[in-house]
């Protein structure tokens, strides 16, 4: 797939000021030349742009008119770049696309890459290809690269991008129902904040994941930014600090991390006696378990059931004072 980043060309701001598409057409000719040069003619694609709130309908109509002779999957537009790129990702996921190229101007290449790193995982294989440059643009780029190499560069855009993405994701509605936390009456709630989540209440839209997915990896379509937002919603509903959240790193074994001791690379159980710490275990085809000892003020979580004796041993808890509960799968 080809994605043409028209935000780079500032085409939409031009459309709000002019009544013809001559300048936009000139930019699109550059796009077509880039497609030909990079041997991408056989691939279909999308045009991506940001729309202005006061002209969004007019803008899109004029843009689609300018693109009528160019085979493409359509125009993807939203009011912020984070929203636009997320909508573009949804279309790619609907089509099962994992490999694509983005055509854009050189000025925005590093900026767009930062957005991509937040909203895409390593499952996707993409390439950012610069559009053709004029002689003046080439000189400007060379000058900019020279200044960048002169010393350490602190990019102020990173924090702004993260904030923009976070604000956008926070604005999305929950999918597949409300966020629900199931609790056990046998675990004393005045000592232990505890519960089991269900599959609803988050923003993850991939058909292979629950909407409240809390795990991101290079093999999944859910990026860290989405998982972080799901965790934020869970923390808000349950009443804990998301910065204190620790989930086990599954290895389908008997390794247990006792917090305060060196952390193993992977483990199926986690135990703590520290106040304010949140421990969690994922559940899919295996069952998550939570443990609580109200006498010793110790709690833990484990993946599946074969670690129960190990977890109890690691926290030196007696079976008479400890209680455990099975989660769903």
Automatic annotation (TrEMBL):
Gene3D superfamilies: CNF1/YfiH-like putative cysteine hydrolases. It catalyses: adenosine + phosphate = alpha-D-ribose 1-phosphate + adenine; inosine + phosphate = alpha-D-ribose 1-phosphate + hypoxanthine; S-methyl-5'-thioadenosine + phosphate = 5-(methylsulfanyl)-alpha-D-ribose 1-phosphate + adenine; adenosine + H2O + H(+) = inosine + NH4(+). GO terms for molecular function: copper ion binding; hydrolase activity; S-methyl-5-thioadenosine phosphorylase activity. Keywords: Hydrolase, Metal-binding, Transferase, Zinc. SUPFAM superfamilies: CNF1/YfiH-like putative cysteine hydrolases. The keyword Nucleotide-binding does not apply. The keyword Ligase does not apply. Belongs to the purine nucleoside phosphorylase YfiH/LACC1 family. This is Laccase domain containing 1. It comes from Pseudonaja textilis.
